[in-house]
Design a protein that fits this description.
The chain is an all-alpha fold. It is 72% helix and 1% strand. It has a two-stranded antiparallel sheet. Helix 4 packs antiparallel against helix 5 (80-93) and helix 6 runs antiparallel to helix 14 (260-296). The longest helix is centred in the middle third of the chain and has 37 residues, at 260-296. It is globular, with a radius of gyration of 21 Å.
Length: 436
């Protein structure tokens, strides 16, 4: 890129923006319903589980710079068919982008009644895609700014709420209300709020020092956000009786201690910028796997073309833009389809754990030189734990997800498998990785 590569700070900002989403505003209350005021400890455990689950990704990302992110990792360390299935699932994820813009517009409408929802959605998506068209560095600078505003929203909740926590926080019956089982369920459930940093690996091609920076960013960003979430959860569960905040959004507790103007900023502004940072990240996250897959033959090769001025894949960005903007302009509801990739994306964590087992066989010299090298026994144990945690998360989703969305996941998976099997003989997977 003419504007330069992504620094560690840029990657950290990208990861933070991806982890922090509006989900935390609803997930915290649900977790309180599982375990009461011990929700803060559940967040800490969730953070530990999330980092442990990310270790196989750290092993891979710390060994080589995979230019197509997770697609290249699966292609090189797994097999061609599995990589094809992965990339078609990624294409389906593109449908979720319109959901972010429409949700943003709904919040905007609450702040400015009478605003044109379609126009707001169109402008937001156009600006963000335009930033990526001019270079990932520009998108990273915008992400830094949006994360700063998002941080102000979160800080307002903490600053105004910390002094309103009632005494006897850890006393029964409000603490560990669901017993050990409820606490475990809350901890596993909250991994969905704590996760997301591993996707920063898809920016490997644009990072200054990917094999060193990306593993550090995954660990530090996850730990930092989880600690902030734990403090927010302490406030959410501590300012009002547990029964009043269980299964309720954070706005319920916020309204009890925030001045109206600050409350509006937290609920509307904080949520809006959480959506924007996640949307901005996801646009960038999709580019590099799709670009590499196009070069390999899974998608039309012309998509991988880059423009002369900015060096960005304009056709991929145009495709992402059209897939996202057309539902907005024509009023199509793609939320069900967009939400129907949640189980599949959780499965990817297990797939990464599985392919990481191939590091000693597929990349023996580079693996031995890796700063994260462990012997085969430890590698199997860590990857096995990561696969098990992914399986438990999928089981939890199967129990809590609607039948329609489960069917949606199955349909997307089925279509992806069929396409991968039909095209695999025409695809030539390139060794799209470098040592640094």
């Amino acid at each position: 890129m003419s504007e330069g590569k992504l620094t560690r700070t840029d990657l950290f900002s990208m990861a933070i923006g991806q982890i922090i989403g509006v989900g935390v505003m609803t997930m915290t209350g649900i977790a309180i319903g599982f375990t009461g005021r011990s929700v803060n400890l559940a967040y800490i455990v969730a953070g530990i589980l999330t980092i442990v689950s990310a270790i196989p990704q750290i092993y891979i990302g710390g060994t080589a710079n995979f230019l197509g992110g997770q697609y290249s990792q699966i292609a090189v360390l797994g097999n061609k068919t599995l990589a094809g299935i992965f990339i078609y699932i990624q294409v389906a994820i593109t449908l979720a982008l319109s959901m972010y813009t429409i949700s943003f517009s709904d919040y905007f409408l609450a702040l400015f009644p009478g605003a044109n929802v379609k126009l707001v959605s169109f402008v937001v998506l156009t600006v963000l895609v335009g930033m990526h068209l001019t270079g990932v560095k520009q998108a990273a600078r915008l992400q830094n700014l949006m994360c700063a505003i998002l941080a102000l929203g979160i800080a307002s909740y903490i600053v105004f709420g910390i002094g309103h926590i009632q005494p006897g926080y850890m006393q029964m019956p409000g603490f560990l209300t669901g017993g050990i089982g409820g606490f475990a369920l809350a901890s596993i459930y909250l991994t969905f709020a704590a996760g997301g940093a591993t996707y920063v690996v898809n920016f490997s091609a644009e990072a200054e020092n990917p094999t060193k920076d990306i593993p550090m960013v995954i660990i530090v960003s996850t730990a930092a956000v989880v600690l902030v979430y734990a403090v927010m959860a302490t406030i959410a569960a501590g300012v009002l009786p547990v029964e009043q905040v269980a299964n309720q959004p954070l706005s319920v507790s916020a309204q009890s201690f925030m001045p109206q103007a600050v409350y509006t900023f937290f609920v509307v502004g904080g949520a809006m910028f959480a959506l924007l940072t996640t949307l901005n990240f996801n646009i960038g996250m999709l580019i590099y796997p799709i670009k590499t897959a196009s070069q390999d033959g899974w998608l039309p090769s012309g998509l991988a073309a880059v423009n002369r001025r900015f060096g960005t894949p304009h056709w991929i960005l145009l495709a992402i833009y059209l897939i996202s903007v057309l539902p907005i302009l024509f009023g199509l509801d793609l939320n069900t389809i967009a939400n129907s990739t949640v189980i599949l994306t959780t499965c990817v964590r297990g797939v990464i754990g599985l392919v990481a087992l191939s590091l000693p066989k597929r990349m023996p010299q580079m693996w031995e030189k890796s700063a994260f090298f462990v012997n085969s026994g430890k590698l199997k144990i860590i990857c096995g734990i990561a696969i098990l945690l992914a399986a438990i998360s999928v089981a939890l989703l199967l129990v809590t997800t609607s039948a329609v969305q489960i069917i949606g996941n199955c349909c997307i998976l089925g279509i992806s498998i069929v396409l991968a099997l039909l095209l695999r003989n025409k695809v030539h997977v390139s060794a799209s990785y470098t040592e640094k």
